[in-house]
Each structure stands twice: as C-alpha cells, then as structure tokens.
Write a structure and sequence with these properties.
Blueprint (H helix, E strand, L loop, with lengths): L14 H10 L6 H17 L5 H12 L6 H7 L4 H8 L10
Helix pairs in contact: 2-3
Amino acid sequence: MSDKHYLSKLPTWCADDAARIAAEDGINLSLNHLDVLDAARHFYDQYGFSPSMRPLCKTVAEHCGLDKGRSIYLLQLFPGSPAKLVARYAGLPKPKNCI
C-alpha cells in the first residue's frame, strides 16, 4: 500500500473516490464502511489530525454505536490496518503513528 492515495486536501474527497480506492484493495464499501469514514472525517475536523486505532475506535463508538467501536469490528471492515485504510479511504492524511 503506497502513500499515493492519501489526500492532502480534505474538500477533494467524495464517496466515489473512496469506493474506487477501496476496490483497488479488494474491498467493496458498504454503508457501514461509509459510517466509519464519516466518523473519521469528523474526528479530523475536530482535532486536525487523522485518528490512530484507539481514537478511531472511540470516535466510531460515539458516532456509530458501542458495538461498532470495537477493534474486531473495524478489522472485519478494514482488514490489516484499519486506521491506515480508513484514513486513506476517507481522504485524510496518513495517521502519524502508523507505519
């Protein structure tokens, strides 16, 4: 996974871009995926940086419900590295503490 899909300008993002980038990774975005992306974008709007895994779980729990704010849920939607994939698909900068 390269850094080429991390967007530097938040307004250029749209759900179609997210779906296209996710499809390149073999992921078909559902409404559940988009809810998580919206929560991450809200976090970025509020704090000015992309959430790493722990803040992402907390934000998703607040916006989508406690059952969806668990790392296992996020791993099912975004296998491998949820925080990196969510940032990438949501048009956010790569989280600073993600390798």
